[in-house]
From TrEMBL:
Zn(2+) binds at H600, H604, C719, H723. Its EC number is 6.1.1.7. Monomer. The lineage of its organism: Eukaryota, Fungi, Dikarya, Basidiomycota, Agaricomycotina. Its main location: mitochondrion. Residues 7-762 form the Alanyl-transfer RNA synthetases family profile domain. It comes from Mycena venus. This is Alanine--tRNA ligase.
Amino acid sequence: MDEVEFWTSDRIRSEFFNYFRNKNHTFVPSSSTIPLNDPSLLFANAGMNQFKPIFLGTVDPRSEMATLKRAFNSQKCVRAGGKHNDLDNIGKSSYHHTFFEMLGNWSFGDYFKKESIAQSWEVLTAVYKLPKDQIYATYFEGDAENGLEPDLEAKQHWLEQGMAEDHIVPGSSKDNFWEMGKTGPCGPSSEIFFDCVGGRNASHIVNQDDPNVIEIWNNVFIQFNRESDGSFRPLPSKHIDTGLGLERLVYVLQNKRSTYDTDLFLPILTQIQHLTRIRPYEGRFGSIDTDGIDTAYRIVADHVRSLTFILSDGGIPGSVGSGYVLRHILRRGALTARNKLGVTLGSFFSSLMPVVLESLGHIYPEITQRTKEMQEILDSEERAFSQILEKGEKLFQQVTSRAIQQNATEIGGGDVWRLYDTFGFPVDLTRFMAEQLGLGIDEVGFEIAKARSRESSTVSPVGLTQGVALTVHDIAYLRDNFKLEATDDASKHELSTISATVKSIVCDGRFISSTSDILSGTSTGVVLDRTNFFSESGGQIYDTGKIHIGHQCEFEVEQVHSYGGYTLHVGCVRKGTLNVGDTVTSSYDADRRTAICNNHTATHILNLSIRDVLPGPSDQKGSLVVPEKLRFDFQHDGPVALPELSKIEANSVRSITRDMQVFRGVVKLETALKIPGVRAVFGENYSDPVRVVSIGRSLDEILADIENSEWRNFSVELCGGTHVPNTAQIENFVIIEESGVAKGIRRITAVTGSEARNAIGVAVELDARLSRFEGVSAPNVAELKTLTAEITQANISVVKKNEFKERLTLLRKSMQKRLKDSQNEYLKAGVSVVQKYFEEHPNSEVYIGVLETNENPKALREIISRVGNFGQGVLSLQRKGGKQWMESVTAVIGGTNWGDEESAQGVGLNSENLVTAIEVAKKYVMTSE
Ligand SMILES: [Zn+2]
């Protein structure tokens, strides 16, 4: 049997799993490729991401994660965009991928270097039977500047395993010292390389980017914490974090020319050929791939995998962050498919996707669950891109052919900006397209053009206020030295006042036993044995309130946060002294809490109403619950139409007034997820057992008949927040805003309780004023303007506001019509006055008088033409010199005039001189005769 048949990728993966399962490691499923809880990352790029809280020492000791000692899995990783970006290498390289699987094993304060190295060696040489003389390892050579010793321990452990000394290579801190960030956990690493050629000593080309000597596994020994002063301090507990690139291991074991020739990619390449009918894949690289078709195969095969995984994890193409990268990958792939494989864009990637689902769906079932939706997103993006291409490609061709004619090596920055600004060509895409023609882009020129055409943003990002917090050392100190148990916060859902004991006080980065020596007003943190304060989590803001001892001492709580299971009350001593050991009364601001509870329960009600009213998925994408309002972000394409919004609001109000009881309970996570229609936030790390909040049906009733699809009609959510006992307490509910957050994500902002009462009150008042306007025949224009402005700015129901705006439009229309009608009346009256005058004075050649026109500037001309139409012809003033005549009149009324001898007009402000003006006009006619 040859290697490919024996070492299938499935077998390689499962042998790894079996090995670590037998070594008492727990399987922890891969985290999402989009880390929702980690704003520092665009994508999961290593298996350790989801274990950060353990390494940071901030994991809640009651959570399931805190009990983990050893773990293994296969992590879905994406390296595209951000710091770790392999996108530009794809197609050219034989072993880089934007999406890849990272096998990994972890020890959390359990085994360390020796065991980790022994396991890696055993897996590679005994399980996978790789030849020992082709394996190399690196170790950290030390960094004198930073006071770091060489990691001779690691070297020694490799020697003990039987690795030849000339296969163990020292490495610099750049390659062999791993840090999570500027501060935080870090430590030396040991990388394992495999020489695909063999029969030689390849130690001099280890870690030199030689395609034949590739890194397959990395062991990181997390033993220090980098402090903010730059120093390294040993961690309270040491950890192992390893990562083994599956694609590379498969390539080594199947003995292929590149990772693309393995069974992980071959089915995709075959399907590409089937769909495009282009020549088969031949595995050529660089200049040998003369028609670029093999490179195109690799780009498309790589990209369809990352698109599938990012989309299945809830990714949505957009213009920032991971959404931007997703869009860029699709466009890069689509362009390649069109230009090199002759694909007509529209549904190419969605037709290629099934082959990925087929080969990896059994390992990652999540990718098979929203297939239709994923394909729709792909199609709509591909179509949109095709339109952009149609419009912009002409300019791109002009620009590039000019550059080539002029022997330039790059496209001008101004042109790159124009492509972006006018046609929506992202710079990355222009760069990629230019590269295919052997051109670069003028990056500096582009930045200048961009800065010129856009107001440079002066807003600098606001840093988080560095308040009092517990560091990883503080947490370890409280736990290990002080033997302090996690704060008991069970009463946070129940009682507004409890008695508790002060366990620890933190100020200025140190623990103190009394506040007697600190200046009043200094920010201080207090840890109690038990608390009823809610610390900020799951979108719900923290409580504020007081910790006091009778009237002698008062500590004002301004913020509450949780660190590693300890609830830290942050605030200031306002009166007296607080000492460790004191018995205190802990009481939160109950009114503020009530408002928060109103808004939190209302958020659940809104969540259900949205799902009931809107077709398609409407998964929660974010939430904020504060005393003044609630904000809920959810998945939805385009604005929510008004009739639907109105229905969502009405349904929510109905649920509230139905006076339903709110139930809470703690259930096993697995059980909770079985409840039909249960709402959970995608990617959220729930504890097990988990808190469940249900409205209108008790949890007992639900659990007794858990399969009943009727539960879909009730709000059932996994939620650790605080809630009202009864929906009637919420009183009312008003949606005051509906807006977009990103493509495919909408936001609803709403108010409840007294805020809702206010909003309704304001709406009633505006309604009354509007009705008054609608009732009068000639409304005051200035007043109507004021009312319009007030309505636009009012914090009232969006639905009401829209109704008011429609009524305002009608009102304005009918006012315009009335004005026009009355102007017509005046016009008619004017015509008859003039006509009558000439009938009575058949010999007269002029009419001089005052005619009302009601603000109609064209009325006089109209009257002249209509009277003229009657055949009078008497208004001819040719011989009179119209302009001069008009001048004599406007001089009196204080205005200006225009026109010529045949016809002249003028205006003036001094209407009190009108009588005199008439006299002057008459006199002019008489004297000039
Ligand atoms: Zn909730």
